[in-house]
């Protein structure tokens, strides 16, 4: 069970809340229009014109109703703190996705003989993307702050593979490693450990990252620094470490950075400015490093997921049913994604099926960012 601290909101968020910032401009603020008479009742000759004016910048905020900006604004009362490790719910590999199949597909999607590293691979999206790499033929190293959970997940991935592929001659090698990705020494140490176990690395998926909700004015500075440390520094540090290894080996490779649709849009109603900025940084890091490392045969792409239903988001939404309605009402597909909806995207970008794709941002968001 997550403790109450996990969801500290005051007051509890509600769809029926009044939109903020609808108070009239104070008189000291000069309006864009120079015509003061436009705010005077009776200025327009017809009621229709008055209605339209009330919905335009000719009128004071709130003039056309309390709904102004209602679905496009953040709500400072939504506050969700990322839980401590011991409070994070565990995840399981998905079932029924990994068995041998005999349908034709492109050989270039196979990751046979490759070694992939997944940061944040102990649970959530990282775990399921690691499963996609294993299913596609790779050996995998799970890297996480929570080594115990990563070990459990590594064992489950192999058990799951065995159950779904009873005739397989060879089991995948899946290992678990501790790292705090925001710490350069810890990153290097974990990579050395992985190289000792696996001999090489061909693919990297950077899924270690987290989000929190505080309005910008009250965001605790130390938490903001921590968030950027994991989401931005952590992505950068692991990518550089793996690229260095690939360059030393003179081997091609593919790096997939997990961004978020929040790197391109501003989510509502939960306020999360530092997270959004961190994910915009991840997206542009992918493009920048794609250009820098193109001549070395190292591809770098970004996957930007929309709202995905992980064990953690399930818990948050159980406590905030109104939030779920609000989120799904803003997604053209009308549904949140499941972690397994990223399996194809990560396999495509990690494999030779995407040899000419680098510096791209693949949005897996049910068209959220199209509207
Ligand atoms: N779940 C979503 O809806 C969603 C949507 C868009 C993007 N994302 C992004 O996907 C990634 C994975 O999210 P998730 O939902 O699976 O989260 P999660 O919390 O379920 O899993 C994240 C994992 O990262 C690990 N981690 C955290 N800090 C770390 C550190 N300093 N070093 C190493 N490991 C660390 C955690 O222990 C955890 O196992 C994150 O970058 C997140 O921002 C998630």
From the structure provided, what is the oligomeric state, counting identical versus distinct chains?
A: single chain
CATH A-level architecture: 3-Layer(aba) Sandwich
Helix and strand pattern: HEHEHEHEHEHEHHHE
Count up the domains: 1
- Under CATH, the homologous superfamily reads NAD(P)-binding Rossmann-like Domain
Please outline the major beta sheet: 7 strands, parallel
How far the N terminus sits from the C terminus, by CA atoms, comes to 36 Å
CATH topology: Rossmann fold
Number of helices: 9
Per DSSP, what share of the residues sits in E-state strands of 2 or more residues? 5-15%
- Which structural class do you get from the secondary structure elements? alpha/beta
Bound molecules: nicotinamide-adenine-dinucleotide
Shape: elongated
Give the number of DSSP strands.
Answer: 7
Percent of residues in helices comes to 25-40%
Question: What would you note in describing this structure?
Answer:
- With 371 residues, this protein is an alpha/beta fold.
- The chain has 9 helices and 7 strands, in the order αβαβαβαβαβαβαααβ.
- The protein has helices spanning 47-54, 124-135, 147-164, 184-198, 221-249, 273-293, 311-319, 321-329, 343-350; strands at 115-119, 139-144, 174-178, 203-206, 253-258, 298-305, 361-364.
- The chain is elongated.
- It starts with 46 loop residues before the first helix and ends in a 7-residue tail after the last strand.
- It has a single domain, classed as Rossmann fold (3-Layer(aba) Sandwich).
- Bound molecules: nicotinamide-adenine-dinucleotide.
- The site of nicotinamide-adenine-dinucleotide (NAD) has 30 residues, from helix 2, helix 5 and helix 7.
- Nicotinamide-adenine-dinucleotide binds at residues 88, 119-120, 122-126, 144-146, 179-182, 207-211, 230, 234, 258, 260, 305, 307-308, 310, 312-313.
- Keywords: NADP, Oxidoreductase.
- It comes from Westerdykella ornata.
- Its EC number is 1.1.1.138.
- GO terms for molecular function: mannitol 2-dehydrogenase (NADP+) activity; oxidoreductase activity, acting on NAD(P)H, oxygen as acceptor.
């Amino acid at each position: 069970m997550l403790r109450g601290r996990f969801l500290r909101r005051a007051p509890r968020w509600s769809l029926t809340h009044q939109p903020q910032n609808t108070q009239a401009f104070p008189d000291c603020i000069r309006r864009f229009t120079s015509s003061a008479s436009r705010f005077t009742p009776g200025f327009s000759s017809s009621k229709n014109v008055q209605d339209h004016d009330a919905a335009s910048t000719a009128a004071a905020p709130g003039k056309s109703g309390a709904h102004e900006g209602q679905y496009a604004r953040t709500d400072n009362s939504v506050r969700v703190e990322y839980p401590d490790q011991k409070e994070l719910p565990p995840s399981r590999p998905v079932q029924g996705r990994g068995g041998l199949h005999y349908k034709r597909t492109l050989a270039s999607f196979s990751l046979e003989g490759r070694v992939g590293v997944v940061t944040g691979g102990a649970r959530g999206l990282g775990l399921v993307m690691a499963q996609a790499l294993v299913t596609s033929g790779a050996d995998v190293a799970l890297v996480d702050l929570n080594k115990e959970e990563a070990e459990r997940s590594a064992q489950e991935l192999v058990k799951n593979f065995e159950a779904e592929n009873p005739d397989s001659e060879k089991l995948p090698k899946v290992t678990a490693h501790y790292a705090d990705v925001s710490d350069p020494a810890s990153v290097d140490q974990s990579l050395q450990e992985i190289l000792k176990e696996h001999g090489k690395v061909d693919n990297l998926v950077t899924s270690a990252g987290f989000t929190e909700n505080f309005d910008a004015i009250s965001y605790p500075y130390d938490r903001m620094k921590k968030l950027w440390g994991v989401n931005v520094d952590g992505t950068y540090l692991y990518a550089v470490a793996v690229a260095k290894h690939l360059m030393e080996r003179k081997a091609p490779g593919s790096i997939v950075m997990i961004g978020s649709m929040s790197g391109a849009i501003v989510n509502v109603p939960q306020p999360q400015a530092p997270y959004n900025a961190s994910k915009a940084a991840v997206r542009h890091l992918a493009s920048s490093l794609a250009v820098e490392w193109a001549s070395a045969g190292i591809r770098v792409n970004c996957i930007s997921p929309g709202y995905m239903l992980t064990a953690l988001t399930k818990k948050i939404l159980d406590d905030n049913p109104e939030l779920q309605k609000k989120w799904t009402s803003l997604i053209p597909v009308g549904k949140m994604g499941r972690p397994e909806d990223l399996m194809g995207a990560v396999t495509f970008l990690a494999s030779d099926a995407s040899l000419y794709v680098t510096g791209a941002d693949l949005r897996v968001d049910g068209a959220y960012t199209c509207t």
